[in-house]
Amino acid sequence: MRRFMLLCLPVLVISLLLSGACAKKLPVLYIFNWSDYIDPELIKEFEAAHNCRIKYSTYDSNENMLTKIKSSRESFDLVFPSGDHVSILRTAELLEPLDNGKLSNFKNLDLALLEKAQSFDEGNRYAIPYFWGLTGLMFNKRYVPEDLVAPRSWSILGNKFFAEKNKVTMLDDAREVIGAALVLNGFDLNDTSEAALKAAEKTLQEWDANITQFDSDSYKNEVPDGTTWIAQAYNGDALQQMADNPDLDFFLPVEGSSLWMDNIVMLKSSKNKELAYKFIDFLLDAENAKRNAEYTQYATPNKAASLLLHEDVKSNLLAYPPQEYLEKCYMINAIGEEVKKIDALFEAIKLN
Ligand code: N2P
Questions:
Q1: pTM above 0.85?
Q2: FRET pair for 325, CA 20 to 30 Å: which of 10, 256, 275, 349?
Q3: In degrees rounded to 5, what are phi and psi of residue 253?
Q4: Which residue owns the Cα nearest ligand 1 atom 4?
């Protein structure tokens, strides 16, 4: 038996080495996306269909994504920035112009939304719309009394009910946090005038007395488990949690909110552009985009996919609000150097 093992060992070692070498040869696609923003089954299916590996990393804010892209040696093929950050990445000359002719499923995209995307990507040259959404407030009904949430207003964040309780969080996102305070005060979320920022600052100081942390990920577990009672939240992330927890609820504040579109972009430094095109086209396929939208609960800009959506998904007003609500919302625009004022205000509030 021992002799048999000794004889077999070299064979085993060689075959292990060989299989390792083969695995190494598989092409690898590096993807950098927001957390909880894709149906993981789609990744597996793409790997199997294209005999490749996907190295998938996630981020929780545009700012963190940008820092990582600029500072890390690791290079990504595809990234999923919001509209304002498409402009920022393009100005920094980090983006590859896309040849939409290589995307047989490009035709599935909603023309009206492609038109909207031109506000941050003129001529739809660099960005493929991925999902769009709104930001609101997610809460746990076990702890937040209904009469408190009944006005459905951003102002609940400053309510004395939460004083000293450490139960309120907001996103770690300067544009969203300052934006909510601007909208509550009747300003455009892109307004950086002195009057607008002064009003926002006053509101934020009131809110800050209740806020425990600015974090874009932990609320997804902490509102369900009661560590947090109410949190500023991206609508799809909230809907994902609400799906199997009747204690949770979410509302889009009456004053209006932020409206954003996240996109697929290819980095100029991508080392596997052909495979990257294939992955974009795979995500644009109507059936795949439908599955992705139903999994993530975000609104799809893929018209062909939206026709296939389950009735409950399509009629969910928290994901697809009526036009009159959308009119009260503001797209987060790239505002150039003016963003520094918003960042400075956010940092000051965080340090408080
Ligand atoms: C996904 C959050 C994406 C929305 N977790 C932010 N634009």
A1: yes
A2: 349
A3: -60, 145
A4: 234
